[in-house]
Design goal:
The structure holds two protein chains of two kinds.
Chain A lengths: L1 H4 L16 H16 L5 E2 L13 H10 L5 E6 L6 H13 L3 E2 L8 E5 L12 E5 L13 H9 L4 H14 L10 E3 L3 E3 L9 H4 L5 E6 L4 E5 L5 E3 L26 E5 L6 E5 L2 H9 L21
Parallel strand pairs in A: 2-3, 2-4, 4-5, 5-8
Antiparallel strand pairs in A: 1-9, 6-7, 6-10, 8-9, 11-12
Helix pairs in contact in A: 2-3
Chain B lengths: L9 H16 L9 H7 L1 H11 L4 H10 L4 H12 L17 E6 L52 H5 L30 H10 L2 H12 L8 E14 L8 E15 L12 E8 L3 H13 L16 H7 L2 H9 L6 H22 L1 H6 L1
Antiparallel strand pairs in B: 1-2, 2-3, 3-4
Helix pairs in contact in B: 2-3, 2-4, 3-4, 3-5, 4-5, 7-9, 8-9
């Protein structure tokens, strides 16, 4: 193949393109197709042992490896940011083994791998969002046995989940789930959105992009095809609500983005900044200014050689 | 003082790994340890890495021990990640442990059994006194152990053959001729067949299996085990190449095998008979093989009509949690940033606390 011959990464030739062998990629693609055909259903797959630890993105990495090609543009985020250590590490992995262009620009990326966030900027048709999933089973906290939870999904037996939300309300006066807030997909399968904050849940509904979820250690793949109905569980008298802040982003002034709290000193002072680093940077480039616009977080020190 | 937010970066990662390499090497004034030295002189560490890494290669395992700085679960992970990239050309014939070249074979069931008790190389009956002569450099190699007067029996009859004529011990029968379940290609599924269970246990963490076996002995799902036999030695690995159609020997592996005997009361249909639990590990790994045999037997509670009331008898609990590469990765992933979810929790707890105090002091709030 001429494409393979032109690849500059000589040192990585020892491994197949995108690390996984082609048979494994085919097996994963079959699982992806099954998952897309049954939105929200957890398709078991023969997850491989990867060169990074379980719990550190092996499911997302296998999904990306199975779908990536040399023409893709790859973005990888953790906690919404492109510069978190594990995101940097995974992005570097694919830059090496898949010779792929990388970006932090959400609109430019064809594949976005993420842990714990959905980007603020709406996704478009043609984009794939790959989630790293620690625990694919939304009912696991309520029922430890896989044999039981598989049966509960088969019979659409989700009463236990509603009882748990009701118990929240009786104990705390509100639904206390904050991240990994359970959703119903096409009114059939209860699904864990992975530990994204519930702030991001509404973004999954009727999304134009393909959403793929990979749990390497638990050996499950599930998916939300474009324009699928995704509903966060709630009650008529206790409707679903997302997180809001009294503050705006200290750097870009955004009023409608998910904020991280940054501790400034030992005296209880803190600032709130966008968790989506690209969104925040883009807004600042457009001239939006927050109350602490000059803070060092806005201009991280450039690293040697970058 | 001001906090500096942590910015991850490629450079930081590279520098951290350079530092790790420096720490692994230790004081450069001390001679570097060679992979061959680890292979030959830390052979039990190599055995554990091969067993739980599911890859029989002493040199690779020794390299992994060196690269991991002696952290065996890390070395096991390195071997697993390498193993998964290897092409497969087929499955071997089942190894025949009766034809093992035995170095050690003991039975706790009988004073003497066909083939005899062979103590072999063992820590058993050593007095655990630190041997300070080993700390002295340049000591001469130990004298070779004296040879026995009689050559050893071969093949060495197994404990099963001792019981064969009385039918006192259950027979292990192969349930089908299908290829055995392969956990490295298919996800775990339940109820697990014995092939899936034994593979999971063979790859399972020695410490976890040891503790489970111990819990069983102390009464949490007891199987009343008795060590029918342990044997250690070398067996031939045979493979049938498609173009030949008959088995050829392609190598030799060192194995530790353990047969645990447990009682069984029998039933209306079935006469009382001893049952067995089976343990098998690469290399010299008696603690592992014995623990595995006890856990295997405890997990057969369904077949023999025992109730499930202890962790060791619960196959979902045992098989889902025995793999130390999975467990170590998931426990340690808590080091990764979780500040998005933590922010969500923080917000909720602050709000709940505010509501809590408002409930306690309604008048104060009204006054404000």
């Amino acid at each position: 193949m001429s494409a393979a011959e032109s690849r500059p990464n000589e040192a990585e030739r020892y491994y197949n393109y995108a690390y996984l062998d082609e048979q494994t990629k085919r097996m994963i693609r079959r699982a992806i197709l099954k998952a897309l055909a049954i939105p929200g259903y957890q398709a078991p797959f023969g997850s491989r042992e990867m060169p990074v630890p379980y719990g550190w993105g092996t499911g997302g990495i296998q999904l990306t490896a199975a779908i990536i090609g040399p023409d893709d543009v790859y973005k990888c985020i953790d906690q919404g940011a492109d510069d978190t250590t594990n995101a940097v590490s995974i992005r570097k992995f694919f830059a090496r083994v898949a010779d792929v262009a990388t970006t932090d620009n959400t609109a430019e990326a064809t594949i976005i791998q993420t842990r714990h966030r959905i980007p603020e900027q709406p996704l478009k048709a043609g984009q794939v969002l790959v989630f790293q999933v620690p625990q694919p089973e939304p009912l696991r906290g309520l029922e430890a046995r896989e044999t039981e939870t598989r049966a509960m999904h088969a019979y659409e037996e989700y009463g236990l989940q509603y009882v748990s939300l009701y118990e929240n309300i009786s104990a705390f006066g509100r639904i206390a789930a904050t991240a990994g807030y359970p959703v119903m997909v096409e009114e059939r399968y209860l699904m864990s959105p992975s530990p994204i904050p519930k702030f991001d849940n509404p973004k999954m509904d009727d999304n134009e992009a393909i959403l793929l979820f990979g749990a390497g250690r638990e050996k499950r793949i599930y998916a939300i095809p474009p324009h699928t109905r995704v509903r966060s569980l709630d009650f008529e008298d206790y409707p679903f609500e997302v997180q809001t802040w009294e503050e705006n982003c200290a750097l870009c002034g955004a009023e409608d983005s998910y904020l991280d709290e940054v501790v400034l000193d030992d005296a209880g002072n803190r600032m709130f900044v966008c968790s989506d680093s690209h969104h925040c940077g883009q807004r600042r480039a457009e001239g939006h200014v927050g109350p602490m616009a000059g803070h060092q977080l806005a201009n991280p020190v450039a690293e040697d050689g970058q | 003082m001001a906090y500096v937010s942590v910015k991850g970066g490629e450079k930081a990662i590279e520098n951290a790994h350079q530092w790790l390499a420096e720490e692994r090497r230790g004081d450069p004034a001390v001679e570097e340890v060679a992979v061959a030295q680890i292979r030959e002189q830390l052979s039990l560490a190599v055995d554990r890495v091969m067993a739980e890494g599911s890859c029989y290669d002493r040199d690779l395992a020794a390299l992994a021990v060196k690269q991991a700085g002696g952290d065996l679960p890390e070395a096991i992970f390195l071997v697993r990640a390498y193993r998964t990239t290897l092409p497969r050309f087929g499955g071997s014939e089942p190894v025949d442990t009766e034809r093992m070249i035995v170095r050690r074979r003991i039975s706790a069931a009988f004073k003497d059994i066909p083939g005899g008790q062979v103590l072999g190389p063992t820590f058993d009956y050593t007095h655990r006194l630190l041997d300070f002569r080993l700390a002295a450099d340049g000591a001469a190699p130990p004298e070779p152990a004296p040879l026995a007067n009689e050559p050893q029996a071969w093949p060495m009859p197994t404990i099963g053959s001792v019981f064969a004529h009385e039918d006192l011990l259950e027979h292990d029968v192969r349930s089908s001729d299908d290829a055995p379940f392969d956990l490295t290609r298919e996800p775990m599924s339940f109820p697990a067949g014995r092939d899936q269970r034994l593979q999971a246990l063979a790859r399972g963490d020695e410490g976890f299996l040891l503790s489970l076996a111990y819990s069983s002995q102390r009464g949490w799902g007891s199987t009343h085990p008795l060590c029918g036999e342990i044997r250690l030695g070398e067996v031939a690995v045979e493979f049938i190449p498609e173009e030949l159609g008959f088995p050829i020997e392609i190598g030799e592996v060192t194995l530790t095998e353990c047969q645990m005997l447990s009682g069984f009361a029998g039933s209306a249909q079935k006469a009382p008979q001893f049952t067995r639990g089976y343990g098998l590990a690469f290399g010299h790994s008696e603690r592992k093989a014995m623990s595995m045999a006890i856990v295997d037997r405890a997990l057969r509670r369904g077949e023999v009509g025992e109730d499930v009331d202890a962790p060791v008898q619960d196959e979902e609990f045992v098989l889902y949690h025995s793999d130390n590469v999975e467990a170590s990765g998931f426990v340690q992933h808590l080091k990764l940033p979780h500040y998005v979810d933590f922010q969500a929790d923080l917000q909720l707890v602050r709000r709940l606390r505010r509501e809590h105090f408002e409930r306690l002091n309604p008048s104060k709030e009204a006054a404000e």
